[in-house]
Amino acid sequence: xKLTSYAFxxxxxxxxxxxxxxxTKGGRTYQEGQQVGPYTCEGGRWVRN
Length: 49
Known about the structure:
This protein is of the alpha+beta class. It has one helix at 2-19, and strands at residues 23-25, 28-30, 35-36, 39-42, 45-48. β1 and β2 (28-30) form a beta hairpin.
């Protein structure tokens, strides 16, 4: 039972970390989907629009 609980908590942490990826630029942190100039933060990376 303990092993199952630990596995569930670990999986929950890993999936939630990917869902809320943030980008950084110039020392500032930006949320997923935020646009800065011609770029959008997607999956922890800056993607040109």
